[in-house]
Design goal:
By secondary structure, the protein is α/β, with parallel strands linked by helices. Helices cover 37% and strands 17% of the residues. It is elongated, with a radius of gyration of 30 Å.
Length: 316
């Protein structure tokens, strides 16, 4: 494999200079460019009203990203909804919890957070079952969170407040980089939407997460770098491991296959399959009723045994 001289990161450029990407560029004298392949657009308040969801009916909000927090308070502002001070906030990480200071006063009894994943937050949510949660999310989201809330019988409302759309990359004269990094399936779709004739050639592809890796595979691209792994929990670490010894790296890397939740499988099925399922259920119900009816008929048709009359002997 050729030596790595340039990397395109399909994310916004970090706001601080302490990013590990800058350290990587300086350490190995590599050109690292940043360009988001996707971006977030907020749902209009008019469209949100169509769902007839009352924000004030809820007593708590679950935030899985800063975008979710931004668009929740944006919608509240556009609809002139005053969020009560009693509202509680459950954040997937501490950084998101501190980010809420942009909108509300930080209080420990009011704002709760996990370590980094939703699994960390679940134990806290289970202790507040009495709350009625709101879950702001994007139009493209994972079902694992709502599946868990359903399993635990937590009262909540999932509401789409923003959407993920592909960015216009036409101003890029080309995408001739040694490595392209992707962080979501939508990012891979954006590449081919902007460059339908893209050919991988000698370009190495890096993907973060099993869903992104599968999207790379589905696009008939070769996956060369994958994260997270026990050896490389972050994308920058995976890139550095590859840069150190590109010749020793495998031509194609493996990745854990994404597990579809039962809910996701049901949603993915076509209406025809769903209707067939309903018909089968109706048929089974009818058959059960028919069996019960036949049992009743058979019981009624049973010939009752003649009762022998016993003559009572008269006493002497």
């Amino acid at each position: 494999m050729m030596k790595v001289k340039s990397i395109l990161v399909s994310q916004p450029k970090p706001e601080t200079e302490k990013s590990p990407y800058f350290d990587l560029a300086q350490k190995y004298n590599i050109k690292v460019d940043f360009r988001p392949f996707i971006h977030i657009e907020g749902i209009d308040a008019k469209d949100f009203r169509k769902d007839r969801i009352s924000i004030l009916n809820h007593t708590a909000v679950i935030f899985t990203s800063r975008s979710a927090a931004d668009h929740f308070f944006r919608i509240c502002g556009e609809m002139r909804v005053t969020v009560p001070e009693s509202m509680k906030y459950f954040c997937i990480s501490e950084s998101i919890a501190y980010y809420l200071q942009k909108y509300v006063q930080y209080r420990k009894r009011k704002i709760f957070h996990g370590k980094q994943t939703f699994i960390d937050l679940t134990e806290i949510i289970k202790k507040h079952r009495e709350e009625y949660f709101m879950l702001p999310c994007s139009d493209i989201h994972k079902d694992e969170i709502s599946d868990y809330l359903d399993q635990q019988k937590i009262r909540y409302t999932k509401t789409v407040m923003f959407k993920t759309v592909t960015s216009n990359l036409k101003d890029l004269s080309n995408v001739n980089y040694d490595i392209l990094t992707f962080f979501s399936p939508t990012g891979v779709k954006s590449l081919f939407k902007n460059f339908p004739k893209f050919k991988q050639n000698q370009t190495r592809i890096a993907a973060f997460g099993p869903s992104t890796a599968k999207a790379v595979e589905d696009a008939k691209l070769t996956l060369n770098i994958y994260a997270p792994t026990p050896e490389a929990p972050s994308m920058t670490m995976a890139l550095e491991n590859y840069i150190k010894a590109p010749d020793k790296a495998p031509a194609v890397v493996s990745y854990p296959k994404p597990v579809l939740s039962s809910k996701a499988v049901i949603v993915a099925k076509s209406p025809a399959v769903a209707s067939k399922k309903v018909i089968n259920v109706v048929k089974s119900v009818k058959s059960r009723k028919a069996v019960k009816a036949s049992v009743k008929v058979s019981k009624s048709k049973k010939v009752s045994k003649p009762v022998k009359s016993v003559k009572r002997k008269k006493g002497k």
